């Protein structure tokens, strides 16, 4: 993983951990969904071009964002 991507994930996780209201959570959720949509398009293109290394890299990034999505769900669910 490149350091810029990992920094982005860390920042999103920090924002989510510090989120005190629904608006902030929804903003983070929107960012994550946009990234996942972009990654989905890119991974499809990589597979179409038989670029399996690129597809693997994108799928790994998608897994990180999927983990963030799970944290968002937990944050939105009242205890």
Description:
- Keywords: Chaperone, Cytoplasm, Mitochondrion.
- Residues 1-73 form the Co-chaperone HscB C-terminal oligomerisation domain.
- By secondary structure, this protein is an all-alpha fold.
- Helices cover 86% and strands 0% of the residues.
- It contains three helices and no strands.
- It has helices spanning 3-18, 22-48, 52-76.
- The longest helix is centred in the middle third of the chain and has 27 residues, at 22-48.
- The protein is elongated and about 45 Å long.
- The chain starts with a helix and ends with a helix.
- 9% of the residues are buried.
- The mean pLDDT is 94.
Helix content: over 70%
> What is Rg?
14 Å
- SSE arrangement, N to C: HHH
Roughly what fraction of the amino acids lie in strands?
A: under 5%
CATH superfamily of the domain at 25-76: HscB, C-terminal domain
| Average of pLDDT | 94
* Category by helix and strand content: mainly alpha
Largest sheet: none
What is the count of DSSP helices, taking H or I runs of 4+ residues? 3
CATH domain fold name of the domain at 25-76: Monooxygenase
Instruction: Give the uncertain stretches in residue-range form.
Output: none
